[in-house]
Fold:
Amino acid sequence: MGFDEFLEKDRAVILAYDQGLEHGPTDFNQKNIDPNFIMEIAEKGHFNGIVFQKGLAERYYNGKVPLILKVNGKTNIYKGDPMARQNCSVEYAVSLGAKAVGYTIYPGSMHESLMLQEFGKIQEDARKHDLAVIVWVYPRGEAVKDDTAKEVVAHAARLGLELGADAIKIKYTGDSTTFSWAVKAAGKAKVLMSGGPKAPTEEIFLQQVKGVLDAGGTGLAVGRNVWQHDQPLKMASALRALIIERKNLEEAIKIVKG
Ligand code: FBP
Structure:
């Protein structure tokens, strides 16, 4: 049980590629619309895991990087309270070669109780199959005024711990001091930063990553900041340098710009 499969020197750099379902192909260009291109980045960039929905796993997963099968998802077409129901069983995730399942919960949505309940069953199924459990926790809805506020992000982290996740993917608060409260709230569960749209500069993105690590975070599970980069493998090397090899920020920036 647990997240060990995804850890390298106690850290993890995970590539997420479920944005096609979530956002549609607007995030993509001629290259990164092809899941084979992403699989290649995951492999050559030595990522510790790749996140796919089941359709991509069925047709493109090559077994070279540990698979995290996302078992729920939603589009961004409907703008009301978010709800993402399960679309793949844990058993089917196992048959596709997954070493973990991923599930998104939107606390604050009027549908949160359904997601909490559904996740409860998935977590137990995952334990039976010895899969790790990664939960994306994105507070959303009318009551959530600021989804990166210290207490909101810490609540997201705590929710993941209390529901039995091995790793919790949350948004960065903007500085390492406030983020460290979320890491504390996550207890023994690992904390991964969620990326968001491509940052205006590489420095800004890598600074955020550094903040997460300084706060005690384990790493990240991001997509656009890697595969929308002109040279995704350079960004991958910079992330590995910073996160796994514990190089400093200046060295990581030099790598991505080199
Ligand atoms: P990015 O690094 O590209 O933001 O990916 C992280 C992620 O959690 C994806 O797994 C997911 O598709 C996306 O963000 C959802 O983003 P949002 O709900 O903010 O539109």
